[in-house]
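Friendly challenge for the regulars: who can give me the structure tokens for this chain first? No prize, just bragging rights.
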Amino acid sequence: MTTLPRPSDFELAILRVLWRRGSATVRQIHEDLLQERQQGYTTVLKTMQIMLEKGLLERDEAGKSHVYRAALAEADAQSGMLKDLLAKVFGGSTRKLVMAVLKESPMSSEEEAEIKALLESGRRKARR
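First reply, four minutes later:
Bragging rights claimed.
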């Protein structure tokens, strides 16, 4: 599998729209983005053309309006960016990353329960 370039902040905003919708036209993406930022239609279009060239998007040209979809799954993008962050900012230390996250962003009871379940699952696998 070819490694795709890391998306910029604006490219990530476009990808989030596509991950939520599945696929969309430039106009639909532009309308969704207007909820969070004032960005011109032509800027969205040009950015999406660049993303297509980079391999971050795929385009279906069969209909009157081109329909775009993300070329990478949300989990794959998150994983790749997290690995970069872990290596570049935390020197590869998972402990440092987790401690920093917990200090910066308190978690809900539901998130705490989910994390505890993941830790217990990991312990069980390690014992096998």
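The mean pLDDT is 91. The longest strand covers residues 57-60. Your move, everyone else.
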